[in-house]
Amino acid sequence: MSFVTDKTSSHEVSGASDTAWDHAVEQIIHAGRRMDRRGWVPATAGNLSVRLADGRIAVTRSGGHKGFLTRQGVIEVGLNGASMRPEDRPSAETLLHCQIYAHFPDAGAVLHGHSVASTVLSMATNEPEFYLADYEVLKVFEGQTTHETQLAVPVFPNDQDIARLSRSVALFLDEMKAGYIIRGHGVYVWGPDMATALARLEGLEFLLACELEQTKLRAVTQGARS
Ligand SMILES: CSC[C@@H](O)[C@@H](O)C(=O)COP(=O)(O)O
Ligand SMILES: [Zn+2]
């Protein structure tokens, strides 16, 4: 398996200059590197997308390493998740990106990563939600003005049938303030633009890492008492 794709992009074939597309691709490449540095896209995990002002959707090609993306690693899909060129294989989870764009007219970027914290914590519980309370960083999420609050992050069972998974997610999209978790898999976060989506992803991952540390601390404390 090669981590770096050598495919040609449709935007290169046309030869026409497309500044908006180039900017979207740059943002995705930059965000992929950042997620890789944080350890959130191991191996070929994760996918990233941007919706341009003209409605086009740029998403990562399936199977490459998201920390080593090139221009050719980003391709265009329609709102139905289908690639504009039959030979281009978009992310296997493109439908999850497109459902966010379809549901939230102001969504401009979607990020998906596989962190250790989201994977381990979601596998340690069968609850359908994960609660984050009293953290200052909660204010990174839309509408949050104080640490004196509690945010529910839905946890969905993992499913290789992405259309079926998207139907489960659809029922809860309106209530989501901080994105969602797929059990044993990872997180989905979005925002009006890439900078906001990245900030929300970093906020959620920070909080999940705190929760993981607290779980370990409780285990050590309980072990010392018994
Ligand atoms: C390392 S396998 C991960 C995949 O199954 C999937 O969950 C994922 O996040 C990446 O899939 P991709 O099709 O490259 O977007
Ligand atoms: Zn994934």
From TrEMBL:
It holds the Pfam family Aldolase_II. It catalyses: 5-(methylsulfanyl)-D-ribulose 1-phosphate = 5-methylsulfanyl-2,3-dioxopentyl phosphate + H2O. Its cofactor is Zn(2+). Residues 26-212 form the Class II aldolase/adducin N-terminal domain. It comes from the Bacteria. Pathway: Amino-acid biosynthesis; L-methionine biosynthesis via salvage pathway; L-methionine from S-methyl-5-thio-alpha-D-ribose 1-phosphate: step 2/6. Belongs to the aldolase class II family. MtnB subfamily. This is Methylthioribulose-1-phosphate dehydratase. It comes from Acetobacter aceti. The gene is mtnB.
